[in-house]
Design goal:
Length: 199
């Protein structure tokens, strides 16, 4: 791909972000409100997704546990995409469609918040996880694209990025997640680190 073609690709990214900014800002605001409520009431954040969306899920869980931009205490967040023993056992014994739902059963509690990252909104393992989460009292947020897919119709809050391009959707899902985490760090009273490096 030549430099002029690359320039067009980056300009298309910038245009998507510009045109979608009001929608994304409203969505990020609502997500931040729900995350703050969850954490203030003693709940935790769970994240899941497949492929690149799994990477986004892990990335954002890490931002809460460690930090995004300021020294603070750890926040409770778990990526359901990282335990290879659990994932392979569940896939082998229960079917791949249950790899996240089984972990929601084990780790989720009423008052927790489950993030489901998907560009198609149609992955069976995410649909099962959302259904299981609802049955035990977890709130659910879908970071989606295209038309939101079936997942958009069953989550409590769907943020649908207006693009059919998987990579652009994933980039904006991560941007939304970063902005939400930044706001949480600003508004939540978690300024003191609990480890030996803190004051």
């Amino acid at each position: 791909m030549s430099e002029p073609e690359l320039l067009k690709r980056f300009e298309a990214r910038a245009e998507l972000l510009r045109s979608a900014a009001p929608l994304l800002a409203r969505g990020a605001d609502e997500v931040a409100i729900r995350v703050l409520k969850t954490l203030r009431t003693g709940g935790k954040l769970l994240f899941c997704g497949n492929g690149g969306s799994a990477a986004d899920a892990q990335h954002l869980a890490a931002e809460y546990v460690v930090r995004l931009g300021k020294a603070r205490a750890a926040l409770p967040a778990i990526a359901l995409t990282v335990d290879t023993s659990v994932l392979t056992a569940a896939a082998n014994d229960l079917g791949f469609e249950r790899v996240f739902a089984r972990q929601v059963e084990a780790l989720g509690r009423e008052g927790d918040l489950l993030f489901l990252h998907s560009t198609s909104g149609a992955s069976e393992n995410l649909l099962a996880a959302a259904t299981t989460a609802r049955s035990i009292g977890l709130e659910t947020i879908g970071l989606l694209a295209r038309d939101g897919g079936p997942l958009g119709g069953i989550v409590d809050l769907a943020i649908v990025v207006p693009t059919d391009e998987v990579m652009l959707a994933q980039e904006l899902h991560l941007a939304i997640g970063h902005e939400v985490c930044a706001r949480v760090e600003e508004e939540l009273d978690v300024n003191v680190e609990r480890d030996g490096d803190g004051p």
